[in-house]
Amino acid sequence: MDKQTNSPRPKKYLWYVAFLVVLPAWAYGLSTGILPLTILGLPAFLLLVYFSLTRLECPQCGKSLRTVSAKLANCPYCGASYHRAT
């Protein structure tokens, strides 16, 4: 059995940008009253977190499992090898 895993680099990059850039910019905009940072910051943060999640989809039973940097090789429902879906 071979493990199919995605590289964690893009996911980690999205997490770092979300937590170290966007969330502080939103908080700064909220505290100082800068409207564009306040309006765009929280949705941008939520989108980055959403895009950093991957979906594992089983090719046999069709069930999917949302995970972050998971290293699962087989489906917990039917035992088939995982196929990464975006």
Description:
The chain has about 90 residues and is of the alpha+beta class. The chain contains two helices and three strands. A three-stranded antiparallel β-sheet has the order 2-1-3, with no helix packed on it. The longest helix is centred in the first third of the chain and has 25 residues. It is elongated. The two termini are about 20 Å apart. The N terminus is likely disordered.
**N/C terminus separation:** 22 Å
Radius of gyration: 17 Å
- The helix fraction, in percent, is 40-55%
Number of helical elements? 2
**H/E series, N to C?**
HHEEE
Structural class, by secondary structure, is alpha+beta
**Major sheet description:** 3 strands, antiparallel
Short recap of the structure:
With 86 residues, this protein is of the alpha+beta class.
In terms of topology, how is this protein built?
Blueprint: H1 8-32, H2 35-52, E1 54-57, E2 64-67, E3 83-85
Antiparallel strand pairs: 1-2, 1-3
Features:
2 helices, single chain, alpha+beta, elongated, 86 residues, three-stranded antiparallel beta sheet, 13% strand
